[in-house]
Amino acid sequence: MIELIDVHKSFGKKHVLKGVNLRVEKGESMVIIGGSGTGKSVLLKCILGLVRPEKGRILLDGQDAIRPSDRDAFLARFGMLFQGGALFDSLPVWQNVAFRLLRGALKRPREEARRIAIDKLARVGLGADTADLYPAELSGGMQKRVGLARAIAAEPEIIFFDEPTTGLDPILAGVINRLIRGIVEEMGATAVTITHDMTSVRAIADRVAMLHDGVIQWVGPVSQLDNSGNPYVDQFVHGREEGPIEALR
Amino acid sequence: MKGARLLDPLAGLGASTLGLLAAIGRVAFYLASTLSHVLRPPFYPREFLAQLMVIGYFSLPVVGLTALFTGGALALQIYVGGARFNAESVVPQIVAIGMVRELGPVLTGLMVAGRVASSIAAEIGTMKVTEQIDALVTLSTNPMKYLTVPRVLAATIALPVLAAVGDAIGIFGGYLVGITRLDLNAATYLKNTADFLETADVISGLVKAAVFGFIVALMGCYHGMNSGRGAQGVGRATTNAVVSSSVLIMGANYLLTQLFFAT
Ligand SMILES: Nc1ncnc2c1ncn2[C@@H]1O[C@H](COP(=O)(O)OP(=O)(O)OP(=O)(O)O)[C@@H](O)[C@H]1O
Ligand SMILES: [Mg+2]
To answer: The pTM is what?
Structure first.
C-alpha cells in the first residue's frame, strides 16, 4: 500500500504539488488523470525518491519511502515506465529490457536474461528481431513499448506507467491496456498509471484520481467516472473548454 | 540610487566570488563521493573495459600525432636556441626531458580533455536530460558507480599509458628531425637520450598524466550529471567540461611540477 500525506513540491517559484493526499491499495490499479503540466509525472518521481518533496510524508506499507532504510531493496519492488521511454541508448534493446537481470541482486546467466527479454518484448507486440537493435533505431511507439517491457521485466510488485499508450495506434493501445490490466489481475501487481486517454482509463482503472492545481480533486471507482458530480472530472472526461479548468495554462 | 549603481560592480564581483566558491564546494563534494564509491561494490568491469577502449585506445592516434609534431618542432627550436651559445648537441637531452617531464603528459591531458571530457559530458548530460539517469536509479543502479567510477578509473589508468606512448613518439619525432634536418648523428642521439633520462623524470611525467586523466573524467562526469535541461543545457555542460578540465590540468601541472622539482 502506498500512502501520500500532504506532499508538497516546488521548482523555484513554481508550486507544483500543493498538498497531495492519496492512497493506493495493494493489488489495485489506480489511474491518475489531470491536465498537462499539473505534476502527475513529478508525483510518481516523488514516490520513487527521484524528486524530493519539501513537505509531507510518503509511506510504502507504513514505512517511510522518502528515506527508505534500504534503498536498493525499496527500488527492487518497483518498475517504472518513463514518459519519454528513457531507454539507455548505449545498450541494445534486449539489454535494456533485461537490465535488472544482467547485474545486481537479480543477476542471471546472459542467455536466460536474453530469453526473458525476448519474451517480454513479445508481450508488448515486438518481435525477436528488435532485440538486437539500438533504441535510436526504433520509432517512438516502439521505444515506448520497449520501456514498458523493461518496466515489467523483473516482475516487480508495484509498477508505474507514465502515459503507456501515447504515441501508439489504437490497436496497440488496446494490447497495452489489456497487458496492464492482465499484470494487475494475474500477477496481483499494484499499478499506478498516468494517462490522458479516456479509453485507457476505462480499460485499466479500478479507481481514478484527478490531479489539478496541485491537489487531488477527486478519487473514486472508475464506474463513477461519468457521474462523479465533480466539475473538474466532468470537464476533463468530456473534454469541454468551459469549466473550472482553464484551457490556457 | 547613485550609490547603488556605484556598488553594482562590487556586488557583481561578490556574487561571482560566491558562485565560484559554491562551485568549488560542489566539485569537492562530487570528488569525495566518487572516491567513496570506487572501492565499494558493486563493480561494473564491463563498463570499465568499454571506457578503457573509448578513452585510451581511441585516443592513441590523436595523442601520437600531437606528440610526433611536437617532438619534431621541439628539436628545431632547441637547435636554434642552442646554436646561440654553441650548444647544438644538447638537442637530444632537452627534447627527452621536455617531452617526458612536461609536454608528453600536458599535451596528452589537453588532447584527451578535448576529446574525452566533451564526449563524457555530452553523453551523461543527454542521459540526464532524457531521464536515463532517473531510469538507472529506479533499476537499482547507482549512477555514480555505473557511470562515474568506470570512466574516472579508466581515464586515470589510460592516461599514463597514453603519455608514455606520447613520450616515446615525441622523442622519436625529435630524433627524426635531428638526424634528417639537423645532421645529428643517429647513434649518438639515441645514446644521449638514454643516458640522460632518469627514472624520476619518467615517473613524474606519468604521475602527472594519471592526475590529468582523473581530472578529465571527473569534470566530464560532473558537468554531465549537473547538465541543465534541454539541448542547450547539454551544450553548456560540454563546453564547461572542456574548459574546466583544461584549466585544472594547467593548474595541477604547475603544482605537480613544483612538487617534483626537488627530485
Ligand atoms: N526537474 C524539473 N525542474 C523544473 N521544473 C520541473 C521539473 N520537473 C517538472 N517540472 C515542472 O513541474 C510541472 C509539472 O511537470 P510534470 O512533468 O509532472 O507534468 P505532467 O502532469 O506529467 O504533464 P504531462 O501530462 O504533460 O506529462 C511542469 O510545470 C514542469 O515545468
Ligand atoms: Mg508527465
So the answer is: 0.91
Q: What is the mean pLDDT of residues B130-154?
A: 96
| Residue A50 predicted with pLDDT over 90 | yes
B15-54: pLDDT as tens digits: 889 988 999 999 999 999 999 999 988 899 999 999 999 9
Q: A102 Cβ partners below 8 Å, 6+ apart?
A: A95, A108, A110, A113
> How, if at all, do strands A55-60 and A2-11 pair?
antiparallel
**Could you give the CA distance from residue A42 to residue A40 in angstroms, rounded to a whole number?**
5
How far apart, in whole angstroms, are the C-alpha atoms of residue B166 and residue B3? 57
List CB contacts (< 8 A) between A75 and chain B: 137-140
- Could A84 and B42 be called an inter-chain contact, meaning their C-beta atoms sit closer than 8 Å? no
- Phi, psi dihedral angles at B226 (to 5 degrees): -105, 20
Report chain A residues whose CB lies below 8 A from the CB of B130.
84, 86
Minimum CA–CA partner of A88 in chain B: B132
Which residues have CB under 6 Å of ligand 1? A 11, 14, 16, 34, 36-42, 83
Backbone torsion region of residue A19, taken as left when φ is above 0, otherwise alpha when ψ lies between -120 and 50, otherwise beta:
left
Residue B1 CA to ligand 2 center (angstroms) comes to 46
Query: What are the pLDDT digits (tens) for B59-87?
Result: 999 999 999 999 999 999 999 999 999 98
Domain A2-10+28-75+157-248: give its CATH architecture.
3-Layer(aba) Sandwich (3.40)
Q: Bigger pLDDT: B115 or A72?
A: B115
Give the model's pLDDT for residue A105.
79
Residue B130 CA to ligand 2 center (angstroms) comes to 13
Contact A86 B123 (CB under 8 A): no
Residue ranges covered by each domain of chain A: 2-10+28-75+157-248
